[in-house]
Amino acid sequence: IREQLLARPQPASWNMLDAGLRGCVQCPLHAPATQVVPGQGPRDAEIMIVGEQPGDQEDLAGVPFVGPAGQLFDALATESGLDRGLAYVTNAVKHFKFEPRGKRRIHKTPHKTEVHACRNWLQTEIRLVQPKLIVALGATALAALTGDGKDLLKRRGGIEDHDGTPVFVTVHPSFLLRLPVAEQAKAKAEFVRDLRMARDYLA
Ligand code: URA
């Protein structure tokens, strides 16, 4: 399998990436999902934001980070002085993984085989955009970018490496949404501080 993954041809252009993503059957997640959710943003962005996978609303819209986590990210990014419109925003995994529960679709964390299967798309995005900095939001993005997603909180705020491109490590905004309300203000302030550090890295 490793040889097959390594041998897989890498799309050389945005058109090839788009076509490849739309026809992707590299893992089982494409079947139940509504559609693939490609990255969004300027193709020459200096900063790339990488999340985990599309959620329920992203799956329906076909656009990353438009649901609750995305809205929180936008608000806190604005507060930090980082304009989402200037960033290329994408996910480690491009299809929504969920478990049907009644009428609801409950988010499920992607398995590492799914993250691995999707890595060539992320690598292609990075090659095409050539960002100066990648921001990894949470452990799945960190694993996809560095091969290791462990000890996220210890690595938070640090700069790591993806094939020569610096990777800034922080938490995922959905982590903030899951905290007890009493802890959210402090956690949001810490996230804004992180995004400011990332922004300052580019200055
Ligand atoms: N969470 C993510 O990681 N990505 C999205 O696009 C939406 C929610």
Automatic annotation (TrEMBL):
It comes from the Bacteria. Residues 38-196 form the Uracil-DNA glycosylase-like domain. Belongs to the uracil-DNA glycosylase (UDG) superfamily. Type 4 (UDGa) family. This is Type-4 uracil-DNA glycosylase. It comes from Cognatiyoonia koreensis. The chain holds residues 267 to 469 of 474 of the full protein.
